[in-house]
UniProtKB/TrEMBL annotation:
Region entry Disordered, spans: 20-41
Protein species of origin: Neisseria macacae ATCC 33926
Keywords, comma-separated and alphabetical: Signal
Keyword Electron transport: no
Protein's name in the database: Sel1 repeat family protein
InterPro entries linked: Sel1-like (IPR006597), TPR-like_helical_dom_sf (IPR011990)
SMART domains (UniProt xref): SEL1 (SM00671)
Signal peptide: 1-22
Coiled-coil portions: none
Length: 368
């Protein structure tokens, strides 16, 4: 099952107080805690629970986390040293209980973000450490991580049936990523699009752009074009990969020919909106030669690029960001210097977090 790559950027996640333990006992959580109720594939009724992420009080940890995301966003264009700096920055933030850093480390170490490419092996030991840390804190999102581990065999766990029970628990606790993931299971595996829509609605209400993007397609198929248009626009606001995809679709919606969006033929062509949504698409997804940044969000989008009939006041992507984000991204920190300072201060130990490259594959022997 393909996992999402961008939970940490889709909603305004916060961070927890306290300090993370430098080492977590190597134990089996599923053997020391009672299992949640089993997943029922015939269940069709869900209440849209909402969650409150852990709170953030450590400004330095937030600085390290945000610096790490600058490197994270570069994807395959990162050098091996930049990937190492990213891990150091995330680990330093995680050592102070930074929620989003821990989330991203779990995803990186299990390989579900494609972070390593062909250069680095997974780190199940580190994934297990942070999985257990979240479970000890009783973070709702940690039950999603446990589902991921049990379902796909990460961090030393494997029990798909039990994994689905923990996914259901995370849904009932209001985790939007879990709501989205379970919606996909209902739609793809169980062929129940009605229940899938209910769960997508739940996740979309919490600002989850991937859910908005998929739900907009359902609305579009149903002929509810105004609702579909609003969902695509709001998906862009909350960023992420799917926010970028929605931005690209909106360039067709406001285009002359409409491309794949012929159902929106009644909407007049608008060159300003075409250019603006294309700029947003490139900002999030990048081009063949430049990286985008799926960590971007655009909370001021309605102020500068409202949907018609309101007039636009577009002045580029930074005009749609919060003022704090615009300042940060236009004057980014020196990530290498921050990582070096973390090691110098002993906040993390290089030998604990160093991610050794995978040895090159031997050449194929085709014989004589």
């Amino acid at each position: 099952m393909k996992k999402l790559t961008f939970i940490a950027i889709l909603i305004p996640l916060l961070v927890s107080c306290g300090s993370a333990s430098p080492s977590m006992p190597d134990r089996d959580y599923t053997r020391t805690h009672p299992a949640p109720k089993a997943f029922d594939p015939n269940r069709t009724q869900y209440t849209c629970a909402t969650w409150t992420p852990p709170s953030d009080t450590d400004a330095e940890a937030e600085q390290w986390y945000r610096a790490a995301t600058l490197l994270h966003a570069q994807k395959w264009r990162r050098t091996a040293q930049e990937l190492q700096d990213m891990v150091i920055l995330y680990e330093a933030a995680a050592s102070r209980g930074h929620y989003r850093a821990i989330n991203n480390l779990y995803l990186l170490y299990t390989g579900t973000q494609g972070a390593m490419g062909d250069l680095f092996d997974q780190r199940p030991d580190r994934a297990r450490k942070w999985l257990h840390y979240g479970l000890e804190k009783d973070w709702a999102i940690a039950y999603y991580w446990l589902f991921d581990s049990l379902y796909d065999g990460h961090a030393g766990y494997y029990d798909p049936k039990l994994g689905l029970a923990y996914l259901q628990k995370a849904v009932e606790l209001g985790v939007p990523l879990a709501q989205y993931e379970l919606a996909r299971i209902y739609n793809i595996k169980l062929k129940d699009s009605k229940t899938a829509r209910v769960l997508l609605e739940c996740a979309a209400k919490q600002g989850f752009s991937a859910a908005m993007d998929e739900l907009s397609t359902f609305k579009w198929i149903d002929g509810k074009l105004n609702e579909s248009l609003l969902l695509m626009h709001n998906a862009v606001r909350y960023g992420g990969e799917k926010g970028g995809e929605s931005a690209l679709l909106l360039t067709d919606v406001f285009g002359e020919s409409k491309g794949f969006m012929q159902e929106f033929s009644a909407i007049p062509a608008d060159p300003v909106r075409i250019a603006a949504y294309h700029e947003l698409y490139v900002a999030l997804q990048g081009t063949d030669t430049t990286s985008g940044n799926i960590f971007y969000t655009f909370p001021r989008l309605d102020e500068v690029l409202p949907l018609p009939p309101a007039k636009t006041n577009w002045k580029g992507i930074y005009s749609a960001m919060s003022k704090e984000d615009a300042a940060f991204y236009q004057n980014p920190p020196d990530t290498a210097a921050l990582a070096a300072d973390i090691l110098k201060r002993g906040i993390v130990k290089k030998e604990e977090v160093y991610w050794s490259p995978r040895p090159p594959e031997p050449p194929e022997d085709h014989g004589l």
